[in-house]
């Protein structure tokens, strides 16, 4: 849930930059770089939250999401 914006707005533009390089216009390339850099810089808090949540879940536990909240069940 927390990593989806990072994947969509950082990894996908990077893939587009790498795959579509020969056909890329300057404007599109600039837009993708700005999107990629600003989102990757802003995702630090999301990455920290993911690390905290994963650090609290036991090794054999299961992480589930219900009504917008994350819970873990002992395995």
Write up what this structure looks like.
- With 75 residues, the chain is of the alpha+beta class.
- It has one domain.
- It is built from three helices and two strands; from the N terminus they run H-H-H-E-E.
- The chain has helices at residues 4-19, 26-42, 44-56, and strands spanning 62-66, 69-73.
- Helix 1 (4-19) runs antiparallel to helix 2.
- The chain is elongated and about 50 Å long.
Terminal CA distance? 22 Å
How helical, in percent, are the residues?
55-70%
**For this entry, what is the oligomeric state of its chains?**
single chain
Structural class: alpha+beta
Low-pLDDT sequence parts: none
What's the rounded overall pLDDT mean? 85
Number of individual domains: 1
Helix-strand sequence? HHHEE
Can you summarize the main beta sheet?
A: 2 strands, antiparallel
Number of helices: 3
**Strand order, sheet with most strands:** 1-2
């Amino acid at each position: 849930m927390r990593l989806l914006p990072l994947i969509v707005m950082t990894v996908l533009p990077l893939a587009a930059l790498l795959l579509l390089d020969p056909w890329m216009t300057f404007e599109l390339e600039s837009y993708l770089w700005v999107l990629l850099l600003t989102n990757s810089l802003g995702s630090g808090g999301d990455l920290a939250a993911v690390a905290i949540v994963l650090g609290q879940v036991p090794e054999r536990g299961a992480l589930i999401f219900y009504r917008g909240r994350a819970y873990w069940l002992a395995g």
